[in-house]
Amino acid sequence: MQGNLLLLDGSATPATTDNVKSALADGKLLWLDIKPADPDGIALLQDVFGLHPLAIKGVSDFGQRPKVDDIGNCVYLVCYGVGGQGQDMVEVHLFVGDNFLVTVRMDHCHALDTVMDRLGQPGGKLPPNRPPRLVLAHNILAALIDSFFDPLSDFDDKIDSLQEAIFTKTTNEQLQQLFDMQRWLVNVRKLVAPQRDMVGTLVAGMIELPGVTAESDPYLRDLYDHTIRVSDAIDSYRDLLSNEMSAYLSMVSNNLNVVMKQLAIIATIFLPLSFLTGFFGQNFAWLVGKLGGLPTFLIVGIGTELVAVVGLYWLFRRRHWIGPGS
User: Fold this and answer.
1) What gap in Å lies between CA 79 and CA 92, rounded to an integer?
2) Sign of CA pseudo-dihedral 199, 98, 41, 138
3) Second label for 293, Cα 20 to 30 Å away, from 214, 227, 253, 274?
4) Which residue in 209, 195, 192 sits closest to 67, CA to CA?
5) Which class would CATH give 3-251?
């Protein structure tokens, strides 16, 4: 079994079965972090902590949506955070009991490691004048929820950069980037929305964490406030991405209109030229016999074509189809 064991007094010990049993026998509040839940870890949760069989099954079945459930001797929570420096989501199963708190995860979670390191340092123990069980759970849940803020801040910068690039020059890579960003945001929203409802359930008191008192209500409201901020940010970025998609399509449409206008102008200029060359190129005896010589060629042949081009150019400029303001 791989994991860490942290006691309330700030001391960290190896996560062995004997150490866990000793801490529980002494009545010390402990935090056991298991990664991942191998057969030894599952046996420890079942035999030592006496968790409900449904909770044991849930630990073995990752990929669940955020939820909270009262399973008898503890409260079972499934919550999500950002795993590391990237944007990958990590699923954390949390068991909050009277004198223990167990977290189970499959992947690396920078938020949990940071809390564990901070509490395991000298002087890093929980405040003695506050409800320790809830403060510990608050630290863990707050770390998971707050882990969304940095990726969302980077996401905001990406939106600004992409917007500038779209208005500078549209490319197919920008469209792919827009789809990737929308896909990531949709996946995050699928996790944050039920996680917000989960925290709301705790705030409303529908399910109470062990050790909850009137003094602990601000901690739960603080969690709910952070979750609402994350949810609002996701909704705002979703609207911004929709606007950027509309801007991208508008820019592509405008560029297409410019190209079509240029092609139409070229076709319009060559239309009278094609008519003139086709008309005077007819092999009728009168045309061949009457229209001849260099002056006639320059005046009638070349001159009419130049007059047509200059006339069309003047007309396009007058209507602002070409030149400044086109």
Assistant:
1) 5
2) positive
3) 274
4) 195
5) alpha beta
Tokens (6 digits) for 149? 């803020």
**Can you give the residue ranges of every domain in the chain?**
3-251, 260-318
Q: Residues 207, 208, 214, CA angle at the centre, nearest 5°?
A: 135
- DSSP label of 302: I
Q: What Cα–Cα distance (Å) separates residue 206 from each residue in 68, 83, 199?
A: 10, 29, 10
Return the exposure string of 253-268: e unless at least 16 CB atoms fall within 10 Å of the residue's CB, then b.
eeeeeeeeeeeebeee
pLDDT in the model for residue 158: 92
Distance CA 49, CA 103 (A): 13
Cα–Cα nearest to 152, from 98, 42, 37, 229: 229
- List phi, psi (to 5°) of 194: -70, -25
Exposure string for 178-200, b = 16+ CB within 10 A, e = fewer: beebbeebeebbebbbbbbebbb
Cβ-defined contacts of 13-22 (< 8 Å, 24+): 17/44, 17/48, 20/44, 20/48, 21/48
Burial class (CB in 10 A: 0-12, 13-18, 19+), 138: buried
SS3 of 32, please?
strand
What six digits make up the tokens of 20? 């866990």
Measured distance CA(260)–CA(120) in Å, rounded: 68
Residues 6+ apart with CB under 8 A from 85: 110
pLDDT at 238: 92
